[in-house]
Structures are given as C-alpha cells and as structure tokens.
Amino acid sequence: MQKSSTASRRLLKEYKQLLTDTPDGISAGPIDENNMFEWECIIQGPDGTPYEGGVFPAILKFPSDYPLNPPTMKFTTPLFHPNVYQDGTVCISILHPPGDDPHMYETAAERWSPIQSVEKILLSVMSMLSEPNPESGANIDACKMFRDDLPGFKAVVRTNIRQSLGL
Amino acid sequence: MKLAVYGLTSTLLVVTAVFVAFYQRPNFYSAAIYLSQNNIAFLILCNLAVMITIFIERLALTIFFGDLRSHETERLYEQLWFTGMETGLALTIFRDAFDLRFLSVLLLLMFVKVFHWLITERIKYLDLIPDAQKLLFHVRCISTLTMLFVVDAVLIDYCLQDMFNKRANQMLIFAFEFALLEVQCFRNIYHYALDCYEVYVYRRILRAQLQRENDLEGVETIDEEVWEPKMLYVFVFDLFADALSILIYMAFFAIVISFYGLPLHIVRDVYRTTRSFITRIRDFIKYRKAVQQMNSCYADPTPEELDRDNVCIICREEMTLNPDQRTRRKPKKLPCSHILHLGCLKSWLERQQRCPTCRQPVQPERFSSSTRTQTSVARTITQTFQPTAATSAPAPLNRPTTGAADHHTTGTTDTAWAPSAPSPTHTRPVPTHSTSNEEEDTINWPFASPAPDDYIVFKIKDAADGPVIVSGSTQIPLSTLQRQAPFSVINIAMPVPPGSTFVAPNVPPSQ
Fold first, then answer.
1. Alpha-carbon torsion (B492, B368, B229, A6), positive or negative
2. CA–CA separation, B145 vs B65, rounded Å?
3. A62 to chain B: closest CA residue
4. Predicted-complex ipTM score
5. Hey, how many other C-beta atoms are within 10 angstroms of the C-beta on A10?
6. Chain A residues whose beta carbon lies within 8 Å of the beta carbon of residue B219
7. What is the CATH code for B298-383?
8. What is the pLDDT of residues B15-63, one digit of tens each?
9. Is the distance from CB of B349 to CB of B290 less than 8 angstroms?
10. In A, which residues are within 8 Å of B199 by CB distance?
11. Fold of A5-164
12. Chain A, 108-167: which have a CB under 8 Å from a chain B CB?
C-alpha cells in the first residue's frame, strides 16, 4: 500500500509482541494508533539503584526507514543521569545510527542494527539506569557528581523523582 | 503566550516613545527627527519591526502550513539557535556595513529560512506517512515550494543587482545565503516529486494486484513492491545538489577570504557538506558493488537452513522458499550464513555493507584487488551445494564442517591445526576445484593429503599479485588455492586481514 509499510508493520508487530509479553518494568506503545512512528513508553527505575521507585515516561520517535535506522528516545520528566542529556535525550550507543563513529569512540558493533528492537532498547535503557557510564557522558554535571560525590548524586536523583511523582 | 507578552510590551514601548516624542516636540517634523535620531527610540522602533515580522511570519505559516506538529516546532527552534550563532559570526565579517538595510534584509532572510526548514520537515513527514495526506497537504506543499522558488530567485537577483550597482558589498552574504536556499528549495522540490510519484506507483500496483487476485489475501502481498529506482534518482539529484552547494560555498569562501578574512560562520557547513558529499559517493559505490554481487554471490538457503531460523531479522516476517514469490521476498544467505529477505537486505545495504546480525562485511573486499580473484570467489560460492563435474575433486559438498574428530599435523612448519572446528554459523564449505574449461597450473602441494574432517590453518600474506597463503617456504596465490586445492576452502568469501590465519577443512580428493 505504501512504502513505509515495512516500518509500520514491523512496529505493529513489535507492539503486539510487547502487549502479549511485556518485560517487567517497561511498557510502551504508540501514542496514536494511526501513527506508528511515535511511541510513548514508561520505564520503572530499577530496584537497588537511586532510581528505584521512580517512573520515567519517554517519547520514542521512529524514522521512516525503521528498522534500518534507530529511533530517538527522550525522557519527558527530568532525569539526572550521566548518559541522559539535560533535555531528556538518551545517549546510548545502540541508539546511534549504523556506521562507524566519526570520532572513533565506539565501534560499529555497538551501534544500531535492525537486530535491535523497542524491547531491547528499553531494556538497555533500564540497564543504563542501573549502571551509568560516566566515560561517555551526556550530562557533564551528572558525570562529575557521579564520580566525585555519589551521595550528592543520589540525593539529586531522589529529589527529582519525588518532584516528578508530585510528592 | 510568551509571544503575546512580547508583542504587547513592544507595542507599549512604541506607543510610549511616540507619545513622548510628540509631547516634547512642537511639531510632527521634529518629533519624527527625534524618533529616528535618538538611540533608544530607534531601538524601540527596530524592535517593533522585528515584532511585526514575527507576527506576519506566524500568519504566513498558518496559511501555508496549518498547524505545526510538535516535532516541527522543535526542529525550528533548534535551527534558529544554530543560525543565530552563525549569523552572529557572519556579522563580525561585515561589521562595517551594518545598517538599517542590512538589518531588514537579515530579517527577510530569516523569514524565508523558516519556510525552507518547515517545508523540508513537511516533505519528510510525507515520506513517513504517505497515505494519510489529504489534498490540502499537497496544495500547501506545491504552493509553498513554488512561492519559495520564485522568491529565492527574485531575492538573489535583487542582492546581486544591489551589490554590483551600488557597490554594497554586504549584499554578497545575502546573495550567497539565498543561493543556498534556492538549492535547498530545489532539493525539496525533487524529493517531493519523487515521493508523490512513488505513492502513485504504489497505488497503481495496488490496483493491478487487486484486480488480479481480488479473491484471496491480496492485502498481505501488496506492499512488498518497492519502487527501487527511487534510490538511484534520489542519489543522483542529491549528488547534484551537493555539488551545487559546494560550488556556492567555495565561491563565497574564496571571495570572502580574499577581501575580508576567514568566514568562520560557514566553516562548519563547508566541512559538513563536503563530508556528506564524499561519504555519499563512497557508500553508493559500495552499495552498487554489493547489489551486483548479490545475485551471483549469495546463495539461496536450503530448506533445512530455513527451518532453523525463518524470521527475517529486518522485517521480522517469515521467509519461505516459494519459487513464484516476488524477488524481494526471496530469502538470501550472506557469506556469514545469516538469512534475510532479498528486499530487506538491499535496503539495509543502502546504509551499511555489513550483516545486520553479526556485522561481518557482506562482500569479499579483501580479495577484490584482482578481478580474477573476485570472479573466482563468486564462482566458487555459487558452486556451493551444486555437485560439479570438476577435474580434481568433487568433494562431498554439503558435508557438515563441524565435528572434526582427530587432528594431525602435516609436517609443514607454517601450517597449524585449528583447535576446533569453526562454528557452523560462520563457515561454509566451498568447493574450490576449477571448472573444466579453465587452464590448470600445476602446483605441488607442500603438505600431505589430509584426512577427512581435518582442518588446515593457513597464514595469509599480501604479495604483489594479491593475497598468498604461506606454507613453509612456498607461497601459493590464494586464487590458485581457490581453483586447485584438493580440498574445500571455507571462509573464502570473508575478508581476511593479512597476517591472519585461514582455515580450510580438508576434503580428500577423490582418487
């Protein structure tokens, strides 16, 4: 019917898959079922981390040639994390477009490939929450605090979570 | 809301300034003089002009674009931010010429730029959801594109006229900017035309198919057709547009650097455009190569292989071996033995020439130095799983390569035994005997004829005539090995860096 059908059909498939078998701590689906290219997802803060108890909504935006190119992910509540930009954009290697990094920082193997899926992205983001990587920082303040002042870092995270939950 | 506050404040300021002027001055003339001479009053008036421009812009945007999507607004602000910075840098070059006219043309430039950004986003959106677009969308697109094309041309002409007639050098920067916008407009026009044509092609295919198979599950198979030449057209046009902008950049760069100094504000753009130009060409060459080799090089999978894993990793749909299905739905096997739909594979190769699952390169780049080797590789691979009448060794072709039981040495110094059989997902036995019409070079194998189920590891080196394998003091060109080895050679289709080892399963020659 249209050439984006590969993308939208794969997204529909992933959506159905997620509906039947949702991993713990994540939920995701299109905002408007007529447009499969914008999803809202919710990630729970993993237990045993400062993010525990937090609920983090994010918007996933898919390109027209998904799954050949990765979606972008942006948290809509403030999330203080070394690998999340201040505007909420998530910076993890599997969300970077395929090909070699122009800065030679990460290998092509870590970057996007059609083998990834929404579920895998969300699980990666969850593991990113439990294991921040201050080496490739997106939020420099968070990186610094995470390295030098862990208690302070935790306090900021907790305050943010309480605020976003309206407590 | 913010805009309303801004508008209100600006208007109030102007009203106050005008009121003060007329209250303090005796007549209209001196009040007008005051308003244009006093710095603060002048600034307030300029602000009014900016405000009016913004409001006209809003109005024009509503007429030409309707409601903006959140994504579009976001992009708009992002672009404004960058452009703001670049304009700041540009102003440093032309700081002497900064006057009211400069400011007004600058405002005009911004006004037009916003339109270009938004129409670009709109056309991308059409690419995303082609069918959901109504007539109004197309009317808006076409009218905007036509208008922009004309406006850009008029403005370029105006700036150039001004520059030559009145020796107003600062107009150079605007002529340049508008020329770039015209290129962008051209880009948008052909993207839009191609997208529309693509939609039309699909509609036609859909109708034809519905007529043909209107009884059974037509809907499922309809969307498999892809208008493949689109990629080529987009590439050619993009290349042309890129070349055009590089030319414009270079011209501007040359002029500015000879008269003013380094134009800092476009360094980023020049770098970006040139890089995209180069990568575009390189990627395209790689893609063409991969596609050319696709039909000859990559084998069709066997039913057993398909049974193991029949989901295409790209579209997540099942692959079947059905002879009368569309070509794009045919499963194909990569050298690393991962299986994908041909169509999905092609679209992926447009972006990257590696297997999406294991990221092995999909083409034997390593051996592409000599065409002889390349064709030989292609031939040996297509011969896989097809018993051939060869002169030397019709080996049992789809004999499993795993499960090597006992290894023994061959007595040569440079060959070593592989510790274990290579994993089946990465290997594939390739019969390497030459076809009968090929001339035979006689070669004395420096190693003993190995037992079945054994593996020899070769070292590969780069030599003048291409890669060679080293065995003791003998060097055998890889191409000869491919043609004449009395055993199957695996991994031949994978690029092997020089100095690395090379595993070959030994298949005894039939005596």
1. positive
2. 11
3. B128
4. 0.81
5. 23
6. 1
7. 3.30.40.10
8. 888 888 888 888 888 888 888 788 888 888 888 888 898 889 889 888 8
9. yes
10. 2
11. Ubiquitin Conjugating Enzyme (3.10.110)
12. 108-109, 113-115
